[in-house]
Amino acid sequence: MVNDRQSLDLTTFARPSGGESVEWRIADRPVPYPDSLAEMDARVAAIAAGSAPELVWLLEHPPLYTSGTSGKADDLLAPRFPTFQSGRGGQVTYHGPGQRVAYVMLDLKRRRPDVRAYVASLEEWIIRTLAAFNVRGERREDRVGVWVRRPDKGPGHEDKIAAIGVRLRRWVSFHGIAINVEPDLSHFQAIVPCGVVDPRYGVTSLVDLGLPVTMADVDIALRQAFAEVFGDTTARLPEATL
Fold it and tell me: Where are the alpha helices (DSSP H) in 88-173?
């Protein structure tokens, strides 16, 4: 079956001609989840009002679980950390140190008001980022996120290396993606990650794949790949809040 998301024209999400570059920020310490929600709410409102530029905010969270709009109580098997209702799409996932979270606040009304195509563009961003480390990330029509094949674990086995969850307000996006760089993978065992129960599908990270990759390495690759899909960025000094 042809993967419809692969055939979408992602170039339509490039920054509109004459628009200002996307602001790019990196938090210098773990950001509590409620603080990130409050900061995103404020920035999304400012972008929608035309008083602030679009933003990509790179950060890590303390260990926690979040539940999206499709989350189920049964997906929390034995939660070891605080659980938050996120308001994003998707189900239950884990965030914690060693995972690069990228909150993406773009004005889709100006770029392309198409949620499905936007999710495909985020997948493409992740796939290009992973390619910088010679990792082949793949889309799956029935499973949102980015996956890597693991024949070493058995026939048909695949591991999820990156998650996606988005929300829109007045056609401005927020929430975004999470790439596993070197998190404690045992923390995923207390939940059903993103509702996937098939034993052939697990969770991995770049370091778990045998790659000695740092968070700084991933940030460089993320920025390069973002520019290819969404357009130029402008840098700010690392900081913990917006």
Answer: 108-111, 115-131
Q: What is the DSSP-derived secondary structure letter of residue 151?
A: G
Q: Residues 232, 22: contact at Cβ < 8 Å?
A: yes
Pair type for strands 64-67 and 99-105: unpaired
Q: How far apart are CA 128 and CA 144, in angstroms?
A: 16
Evaluate whether 194 touches 91 at the Cβ level (below 8 Å). yes
The distance in angstroms from the start CA to the end CA of the chain is 43
pLDDT tens per residue, range 179-200: 999 999 999 888 776 556 667 8
DSSP 174: E
Q: What pTM does this model have?
A: 0.89
Catalytic residue among 194, 218, 222, 225: 194
- Is the pLDDT at 4 greater than 50? The verdict is no
Q: What are phi and psi of 239, to 5 degrees?
A: -155, 165
152-168 pLDDT, tens digit each = 999 999 999 999 999 99
CB 22 within 8 A of CB 231: yes
What are the start-end ranges of the E strands in 126-235?
Answer: 138-140, 143-149, 158-169, 172-180, 201-203, 233-235
Task: Please give the pLDDT value at position 71.
Answer: 62
Kindly report the number of other CB atoms within 10 A of residue 197's CB atom: 9
Beta-carbon contacts of 21 under 8 Å, excluding residues fewer than 6 positions away, are: 15, 53, 231, 232, 233, 234
Annotated catalytic, 194? yes
Greatest Cα pair distance in the chain: 52
